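Q: Focus on the chain.
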Amino acid sequence: MNYKTTKIKNNYAIGIDVTSILKFQNKNEKFAKRILTKNEYLNYLKIDDYLKSKFLAVRWALKEATYKAVSRFHNIFFTNIEFIKINNSYKCITFNKVEVSVSYNENLVYAIAIFIE
């Protein structure tokens, strides 16, 4: 699915992404290395195989939403955007001015990122 960035005022932007967990089934480690940071990849290797597609889908949606919000202000790549999970919430450690939210049900992952320059 393709969603555009919505600009709010001059120094705010919102990015949204929706993706399917099924889309990430049977992805190999080469693919994971292309979209994850080194720390995210190390965490990916530690989780059970049946959770890996969800892990990748959540990271993809978060990074895509963040990219859409931040790319107007900064030149970035997926492997430069890193997330950690703290108390069932995700935090972007690359940009401290990004707030994200992610939700998932059954096969879909929904992510939104708000960037304040």
